[in-house]
């Protein structure tokens, strides 16, 4: 079966129904505040992919068993939507969507180019993928949207437990220090690869949002590289051409702060709040 015949589509999610059904995460959670911001999700998501692709087992699993090669933007958008369902979706829908992801991952297995076996449901890989997403989204929000107090960062890490367990994650970082300890264990495995640069070229090209000027996409890509821990960036050999300039930083922060003030009534955060009988702008309140 070729890549094109394996294209999967994320079912359309109505975050406004069924009325009254709660989400796994509470409306006053830090995750509700972070996930409403599309810039934090974009920057954090790119950083998470770079951290995941550092490991040949994950890189091979994504490259060989998903539609990433033919539809990298679509694949990334569907992954983002799955994350949004976990935060804002009705519990019943979240279980359904995550269950589908788990069933798909159960079929993913193979060998890396060096001949090492991998399985998508390998606990070590599941744990790392979950941890990179948490780290990426939180760090992007903290750096480019709004600085968070240490107590709110700790809350964010703890809030991710319920969703991580639905994915079968067995080791859940409860702090950035926990994340770095996990990273240090895996660091000897990490390696540079052309796929990492190809991925960044796709991001910088602006294909994800053609209406946005290309120079903004370049700034977003550099912002993502800037939050990859230095030890990993060095392993990936992402050099000075990816350094975040002062201009980049100003642009990304301006983009990141805008969604904090412009309340999107069509967003999952707004619809989920109204589904639960709360004001639509709940996620925007501090």
Account of the protein in words:
- By secondary structure, this protein is mainly alpha-helical.
- The chain has one domain.
- The chain contains 14 helices and two strands, in the order H-H-H-H-H-E-E-H-H-H-H-H-H-H-H-H.
- It has a two-stranded antiparallel sheet with strand order 1-2.
- Helix 2 runs antiparallel to helix 6, helix 4 packs across helix 5 and helix 10 packs across helix 11.
- The N and C termini lie far apart (50 Å).
Considering the chains and any ligands shown, give keywords for the structure.
globular; 2% strand; mainly alpha; single chain; 14 helices; two-stranded antiparallel sheet; 286 residues; 2 strands
């Amino acid at each position: 079966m070729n890549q094109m015949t394996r294209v999967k589509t994320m079912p359309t999610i109505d975050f406004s129904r069924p009325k009254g059904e709660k989400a796994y995460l509470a409306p006053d959670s830090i995750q509700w505040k972070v996930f409403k911001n599309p810039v934090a999700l974009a920057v954090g998501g790119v950083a998470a992919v770079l951290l995941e692709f550092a490991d040949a087992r994950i890189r091979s699993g994504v490259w060989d068993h998903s539609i990433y090669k033919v539809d990298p933007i679509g694949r990334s958008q569907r992954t983002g939507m799955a994350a949004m369902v976990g935060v804002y979706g009705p519990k019943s829908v979240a279980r359904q969507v995550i269950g589908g992801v788990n069933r798909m991952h159960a079929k993913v297995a193979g060998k890396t180019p060096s001949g090492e076996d991998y399985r998508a449901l390998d606990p070590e890989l599941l744990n790392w993928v979950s941890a990179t997403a948490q780290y990426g989204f939180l760090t992007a929000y903290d750096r480019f949207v709004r600085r968070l107090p240490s107590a709110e960062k700790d809350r964010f890490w703890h809030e991710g437990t319920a969703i991580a367990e639905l994915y079968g994650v067995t080791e859940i970082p409860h702090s950035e220090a926990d994340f770095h300890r996990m990273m240090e264990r895996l660091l000897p495995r990490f390696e540079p690869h052309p796929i990492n640069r190809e991925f960044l070229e796709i991001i910088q090209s602006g294909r994800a949002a053609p209406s946005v000027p290309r120079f903004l996409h370049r700034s977003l890509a550099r912002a993502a590289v800037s939050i990859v821990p230095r030890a990993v960036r060095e392993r990936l050999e992402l050099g000075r051409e990816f350094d975040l300039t002062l201009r980049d930083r100003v642009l990304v922060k301006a983009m990141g702060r805008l969604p904090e003030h412009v309340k999107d009534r069509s967003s999952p955060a707004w619809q989920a709040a109204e589904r639960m009988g709360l004001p639509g702008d709940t996620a925007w309140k501090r």
